[in-house]
């Protein structure tokens, strides 16, 4: 067999393998996406008492449906239960952002009494947004998440809270369905803790339907 024919056969073989690999990849992706879509049939989640209806943004503000040592809000678009609703929409995201800014503008938030909102942009379940003001813009924010479940290790992180006196960030590492103890600390330039607070909160169950611990 000539080298030219051998090269053609090899190229055809590579093309066939590449097409097969791509087909398998598409099948896996479509299968996983279908499973996720099936598990998330609705964006509506359990809420606490309705506190306010913002007619300008058409966003409702609720108390948290779960118990906590601090006041935690939930914000939801008024049309969240409609069949064609999705949070992956710029208009929806802009309205949620406007409602969040309105809450922030009320002011008076401190480390011990922060503005706290579950999943303010609707695309997760157990992210807790915190906002508060400090006297020193250079202070860094660290936090630890602890549960009484001995099988779950503590989660520690430095928050990406910004370099101004107004600190805002999303607490991650909270365990759905568990009561979590959250300790938030402010540290100075030498890494020394200058202020600290701790609160407990019941974390909402995950909406995806997947296991949340290994």
Automatic annotation (TrEMBL):
The signal peptide stretch is none
Q: What residue stretches are annotated with the Arylsulfotransferase N-terminal domain?
A: 117-198
Transmembrane parts of this sequence: none
Protein's UniProt name? Aryl-sulfate sulfotransferase N-terminal domain-containing protein
